[in-house]
Structures are given as C-alpha cells and as structure tokens.
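I wish you would study the pair of lines that follows with an eye to the fold:

===
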Amino acid sequence: MPTFNVDPQSPTPIYAQLDRSIRAAIATGTLAPGSQLPTVRQLAVDLAVNANTVARVYAQLERDGILETQRGVGTFVRASPSPQATREHRERELRALIQRFVGDAALLGFTLPELISQLREEEKK
C-alpha cells in the first residue's frame, strides 16, 4: 500500500495535497489500475486528518473518473479513466497552475501583459 503524504504546515489545503498525492501515485504506477485504496477511516487515521477530508478527496476522484467505489468492498483505481474525466482534470489543474503563477508574479510586481509577453518569448525558444 503506498504512503500518501500531507504537510499540515503547508499553505496548500490538506484535501489538495492528498488529491495530488493520490494522483501522483497513480501516474507513477505506485497505484496500478485495480489497486485498492485504504478505507476513508484508515487513511484519515494514518494521516491524522479528518475523515471528511479523505471522503471529499475520494468523492472528487470518483467524479473525475479516476477511482471507483464498490459498495461493501472498497475504493479502487479505475482500470482506465474516462477521456472526459481526464480532460476536465487537466483543465482544472491548468486553471489552478495559472492562478498560482499569475498570483505569484503579481506579488513580484509583474503585470499580465508582461507575463504574456515573456510566455510568448519562451514559446519561440
């Protein structure tokens, strides 16, 4: 069973850290299709987080087509995520990345036109 990590001191919310940790385990093959995840309660105890947080992450990953729950059996990595779910997840991750990027750049005093100009320069390289 893979170990998922969350850092309570991180400014990133626990649910986002756990979501990324599970997705990374799947992407790297640490969690193979068909692998069973720990129960919500067990993972909450292991990570010392609220069970509702784990349940929220599992539910989102199930909506995204990455996990599937078999009532009375457990939660498993889907054999193959649906293309729609994968596209929606990629779009959501890109939006979050852009928001962080623009926010960090604004803190450093950069304007959106400056960022766009620099991105276009990077694209030419």
Notes: The chain has a mean pLDDT of 88. The chain has two domains: 14-77, 83-124. Strands lie at 67-70, 74-77. The two ends are 42 Å apart (CA to CA).
